[in-house]
UniProtKB/TrEMBL annotation:
It comes from Exiguobacterium aurantiacum. This is Proline--tRNA ligase. Homodimer. Keywords: Aminoacyl-tRNA synthetase, ATP-binding, Cytoplasm, Ligase, Nucleotide-binding, Protein biosynthesis. It is found in: Cytoplasm. Catalyzes the attachment of proline to tRNA(Pro) in a two-step reaction: proline is first activated by ATP to form Pro-AMP and then transferred to the acceptor end of tRNA(Pro). As ProRS can inadvertently accommodate and process non-cognate amino acids such as alanine and cysteine, to avoid such errors it has two additional distinct editing activities against alanine. One activity is designated as 'pretransfer' editing and involves the tRNA(Pro)-independent hydrolysis of activated Ala-AMP.
């Protein structure tokens, strides 16, 4: 591609509204333009990167046995009503009405739509399993679209859905997808961690997010260096839902809720002193001893817990802050203590609230319970989630990092198939709901995440696998005939092997170099003064390494 022909409107100035580095560089480098809040056009350079990312995703998904299809973005409201999500999804779901007053949703996700497609077709165990995926534009009216492509309202997602006859089969596919996702993000060149995550209101239990490590990330992840275990700190919230159930069991069992109990009553029962600092509480549930640590009086604690989980902003690996926040003794931070304690703070809060009357928390409690049937959960679930797949005797310090959720794998179970009557006949000829998994990757978000991790103060530093072009060939002075001739020749020759961007513009060298640094192609070839000797300069964007080479040696040098 000749740069003189390429639509690549670069900017020298940092766009005023762009907070995130990736957002700034995408606009400055002419990769994209904003059309409305959270809505963007991908210009040719940005589009090329998206294509590269999509190719990697397609290759790995196909390799893993999934099949590509394409579903509509416009979905009938009735499907969303079948699962109740027309109501539950809230204002994030964009809705529209056609000329006949029929209601539609703009697809925020496609569980309902895919289930409606397969429910009449995947009607026998013999046709299972099946994994179907698409790469498609999604719509979510995010409350706060921001950071460019990181949180858009129209964005590109790869979403896949798998259907199974048995839970074991789903478990296998989950592992299969987990591996495929690891391959994808490895190939894209992201530093990431799969973390245990919150299964939210969708139901189901097992879920991992793939978190690209970056300061701008909106998620906080908790991990240790000495174990494989890592979790989204949101897990604490999930656990609080588990806790609520446990708390209720405890409360109903031991405290007479018919009487108007006061905080003091509950506190007395729990052996908590509400007037002075509460240090620790031991719960005994189902024979298990679970420790909770609570600080301050209950009102202050309320605020603190809310702040802690809502606006938690812990400095990375700042042990002093963690110690302060969680009230642990220095040196006693084990791998699970901090998450347990956040959870337990909540447990106490809900225990107290649940027994003492209807306040906001209690409403929340009922709300969550109405949405999710928690009756099958026991305290073992809590312990399982907290401890995850950690080695128990390893006890490195807890570390915190910021992450960008670039993907998520999820065991849905029968939440959708049951609601939508998607059944198959099992080997005994009995009808059963399909067992489902779903797996998403934020394609456009991933593009930004790559830049968050790969840039310097001059611009983007693309990993080879997703760079918009492989090689940036620069004719430094197009008025010099020897230079122009050699550059033209190299352009023709290299183009058979590489995607070459050829800067043939009549611009000053300084302008060309600044643009080249900004858009960050992995290899730059400068054709300059030594062109008449057949010598060019090769510059590696990532390392800054520069070397001269003869044209004959060039193919070997740049491989
Ligand atoms: P988040 O927690 O960031 O809001 P999510 O959990 O709501 O994301 P999923 O429903 O899991 O998102 O969707 C699958 C993937 O789509 C996410 O892992 C993420 O990479 C991407 N994604 C979700 N929302 C957006 C968005 N507003 N803009 C860009 N990508 C998004
Ligand atoms: Mg979301
Ligand atoms: Mg999320
Ligand atoms: Mg998610």
């Amino acid at each position: 591609m000749k740069q003189s022909r390429l639509f690549m409107p670069t900017l020298r100035e940092v766009p005023a509204d762009a907070e995130a580095v990736s957002h700034q560089l995408l606009v400055r480098g002419g990769f994209m333009r904003q059309n409305a809040a959270g809505i963007y056009s991908y210009l040719p350079l940005g589009h090329r990167v998206l294509q590269k990312i999509q190719t990697i995703i397609r290759e790995e998904m196909n390799q893993a046995g999934a099949q590509e299809l394409l579903m509509p973005a416009i979905q009938p409201a009735e499907l969303w009503e079948e699962t109740g999500r027309w109501g539950i999804y809230g204002p994030e779901l964009m809705r529209l009405t056609d000329r006949h007053d029929r209601r539609f949703a703009l697809g925020a996700t496609h569980e309902e739509l895919i289930t409606s497609i397969v429910r009449d077709e995947l009607n026998s165990y013999k046709k299972l399993p099946v994994n179907l995926y698409q790469i498609q534009t999604k719509y979510r009216d995010e409350r706060r679209p921001r950071f460019g492509l990181l949180r858009g309202r129209e964005f590109l997602m790869k979403d896949s859905y798998s259907f199974h006859a048995t839970q074991d089969d789903l478990d296998e596919e989950y592992k299969n997808m987990y591996r495929a996702y690891s391959n994808i993000f490895d190939r894209i060149g992201l530093k990431y961690r799969p973390v245990v995550a919150d299964s939210g209101a969708i139901g189901g239990k097992d879920t991992h997010e793939f978190q690209a490590l970056a300061e701008i990330g909106e998620d906080t992840i908790v991990y240790t260096d000495t174990s494989n275990y890592a979790a989204n700190i949101e897990m604490a919230e999930t656990l609080d839902r588990y806790d609520m159930q446990a708390a209720e069991i405890l409360a109903l069992d031991k405290v007479d809720t018919k009487d108007n109990k006061t905080i003091e009553d509950v506190a007395r029962f729990l052996n908590i002193d509400t007037k002075t600092t509460i240090k620790s509480v031991l719960f005994n549930v189902d024979g298990e001893t679970v420790m909770a640590i609570v600080r301050g009086d209950h009102e202050a604690n309320d605020v603190k817990v809310k702040n802690a989980l809502g606006g938690l902003d812990i400095q990375m690996e700042d042990e002093a802050t963690i110690i302060d926040l969680f009230g642990c003794e220095p040196g006693t931070l084990g791998p699970i203590q901090a998450p347990v304690k956040v959870v337990a703070d909540y447990a106490v809060k809900y225990l107290v609230d649940a027994v003492c009357g209807a306040n906001e928390a209690n409403t929340h409690y009922k709300h969550v319970n109405a949405e999710r049937d928690l009756s099958h959960l026991t305290y073992h679930d809590l312990r399982f989630v907290v401890e995850g797949d950690m080695a128990p005797d390893e006890s490195g310090p807890v570390r915190f990092a910021r992450g960008i959720e670039v993907g998520q794998v999820f065991k849905l179970g029968t939440r959708y198939s049951e609601a939508m009557g998607a059944t198959f006949l099992n080997e005994e000829g009995r009808a059963e709901p399909l067992i489902m998994g779903c797996y998403g990757i934020g394609v456009s978000r991933t593009l930004s995440a790559v830049i968050e991790q790969h840039h310097d103060d001059r611009g983007i530093v693309w990993p080879k696998s997703v760079a918009p072009f492989d090689v940036h060939l620069i004719a430094i002075n197009t008025k010099d005939e020897a230079q122009l001739e050699l550059a033209n020749r190299l352009y023709a020759e290299l183009s058979s092997t590489y995607d070459v961007l050829y800067d043939d513009r009549k611009e000053r060298a300084g302008v060309k170099f600044a643009d080249a640094d900004l858009i960050g192609l992995p290899i730059r070839i400068n054709v300059g003064k030594k062109a008449n000797e057949g010598i060019v300069e090769v510059k590696v964007r990532a390392t800054g390494e520069v070397l001269e080479t003869t044209v004959d040696e060039l193919p070997r040098v740049i491989t």
